[in-house]
Amino acid sequence: MTRLIDRIAPCGPVHDPKAAERARTWLAAQAPEDQAVFEQAWPALEPVFGASSYLTSLARRDPARLAALLQANPEARFEDLLARTEAMGGADPAVAKAGLRTLKAEAHLLIALADLGGAWDLDAVTGALARFADAALQAALRVAAQEETAAGRLIPPPHGEHGPVPGYFCIAMGKHGAYELNYSSDIDISVFYEPDDLPLAEGVESQAFCVRLTHRLADLMQDRTADGYVFRVDLRLRPDPGSTPPAVPVPAALDYYESVGQNWERAAFIKARACAGDLPRAQAFLTELIPFVWRKNLDFAAIADIHSIKRQIHVHKVDDRLTAKGMDLKLGRGGIREIEFYVQTQQLILGGRHPDLRNRRTLEALEALRAAGHVADKACAELTTAYHELRAVEHRIQMLADEQTHRLPESDNERKRVAALYGHRLLRSFDAQIERTLKTVNGRYGELFPDEEPLSSKFGSLIFTGVEDDPETLSTLARMGFSNPPRVSQTIRGWHHGHIAATRTERGRELFTRLAPRLLDAAQATGSADAAFNRFADFFSRLSTGVQLQSLFLAQPALFELVVQVMAYAPRLASTLARRPAAIDAMLDGGFFHAIDMAQERAALARSLEEADGFEAAMDVVRRAHREQTFRVGVQVMSGSASAETAGAAFADLADLCIQALGPVALAEAQRLGGAFPGQVAVVALGKCGSREMSAGSDLDLMTLYRADDPAAVSAAKGWGAELFYGRFTQRLIAALSTPTGEGELYEVDMQLRPSGTKGPVAVSYAAFEDYYEREAETWELMALTRARVVWSTSEGFAQDAARAIETALRRRRDRARTAADVREMRELMERERPPKGLWDLKLSPGGLVDIEFAAQFLQLAHAADGGPLSCNTAEALARLEAVGLAPEKPIAALRAAWRLEQDLTQLMKLALTGAEDIAQEPKGFRLLLAKAGGARDLKALRAKLERARTAARAAYEAVVDR
Prior knowledge:
Structural class: mainly alpha
Distance between the termini: 117 Å
Radius of gyration: 39 Å
Strand content: under 5%
């Protein structure tokens, strides 16, 4: 049998001759009896010790071991090593822990020398690593089981094929399962158990036992001691690792895979095999999973979802540069994973009907695909060569320092070490070879499923399969503007796992696979990626189902982008969706972007109110209707499909609808409490509601007018007079409109514009109203009254009477000069006490909305006594005054132009902002949206336009409110 020393050759040039010479001197000094062996092997050892500090340390730690390895037949020595490893299963825990680590060091040195020296090929190297992992795992399990037996929790079973703990087994996954383990790899294992088959002592709970046993097993394998470690153990390929214990009952596992198992998990099980514990039961478990892994019938959606495993990786164009420097040879573009995905995706699609394609090993499966005509000969040859090359270089990267890394060093000097171990003297030629290989693999990968939509981004790969963050995906997310890429990645992986209702079904997950990259791209496009994603996550996680909505989003990408914009820019709407995801159902209606048919809404609301049981139920009915329609109007504003005028009127119509629905309810509640009262009442809207210029979040300025049929009348049950009865009605109306319920809020209600403000009765008698506005009302109160309109009344006749009383108050003759002076004085007082908060304070800035409103209100009061037009709406009032020649044309034109611009901006800003923020600090996407709303190309142009309009409006205000 040939000795290792006779079969190894120099792997390449000596990178660091001094380091190699130091190792040579040490070995000669420490083991002079073996010097002849070292000298014979020196041509092969020198480049190894000149590049790898780790392998040098293994040699220096035990020179006699090195000499023995060199003089032994490597295959025989390895078999003996496996036997010694298995024997550790009968040792004391402390002895076994140290012994397994010593044996790992021997295995590592033997395998590295055989690999670097050319004695073993790639299959022999990876197979040896996997076989040693199996032996170490089996031995560690026996030791852990002995500890449980000693503690009295495990009844020792008879020796046999079911292992030290019948019913408990380990499944090797990934490269370990395929006998393709890399040099410094961890081992991916999934642990399962049959609860009823465990030989446990009475009173021992199966889950607690298996979790403890698994922790013992992992600790024996991966604890770092002075002797090192055996293998790092990764248990995360088990079902839903974020919410399951490290050992999973078989029934629960089978249920998981049947209900929410994903395609990447099917791909993972291609390589799975029984490796430790109760091997017959492990094999039976894998047999039960065959229908999950190898599906014979795949519909279009399922095939597309399998394709997605490939499409999440960004494929470079022909002229894109793939550089060796810093490249991750496993996960990077053109790396090992792309070859594995190239094979596994085709296996998943074809393997259900063609068992000969069900091969764990990557290159054997690739050859089977070629033989079956599914992969071209040239592609197979190129990928096979590339796989051998990339795996060999990967091993050499890890041999430098025994680190689980797949990344070529950024440092030229460190990369030269890898190049030397791979046989390259010149770094330039090594880098060029790596780059050619990466480009070849990435090109072949791009040919797979070429007609499918990409699931990556222009910013890079977006890979959310598996149980750990993909490094390149984290880099992509960072480039897209996300401040916490790991959190985004973990959230999306959780959705892929079916953690939320929207993705709990297989169809829901298939759709989300396609939607995820669109979501991230849309969030990036807003310029506020974090806000868009976080608010979308709040909404998406609360959906009760996701198939219909995700299908809609995929079919209408412009609509989906709009929804993500809403999430980014409109916290009010986003909050509505997060609290009440059903609000988005309205988007499924084809008429969503059309004007709201208030007659239809009124009828629908009336039908719902008829079914409401009581005051609180009626409040909830109105809140649901309001929420749906305010969301609708808000989205119309965001999309630009509703002008400011349209939106203001729509918001006001909704307020009217709520008042008209709740007015009778509040009256009925007052009657229930106090008894019927003979009289009439009307609700008058003022402010933005009265002028039909409301925006998102506007409050309601209201006044209630009443008139008793008889001044001495009292209510039937409690004997309340008119003031008390209608005061109670008003209080119930305010509560109905403003009190939060389980369905949310409606409006804040302000009653301060009534006569005497907060000092007077909450409800105003008709006679008191007439008297107050004839004798006491100040100019500012009359200005406010120009926007008053009757919204609801107990009778049409009283509504008309109330409207006449309002008009009468406005048309009384008053001194024009005195009125102008009052208006100017009030505006000056506002400027002193409530100065504008900044450039974007559209209300209080000079030339802002207040100036324009004051001008319109002054002109109406000045001309009303002579029959001049009256209108609640500012824009309409200005237009009518101009039409009849009661205002100078140029100033009115300036006021109207500024009003339109500032209203257009106000509607959008009220949706998006909470105050007078500096717009320049808002995301670029919002700045452009705002500029578009203002008819400008960008924010700079909008600012200039706004300043010009305000300057003209201020001058017009001063000209109109003449001295």
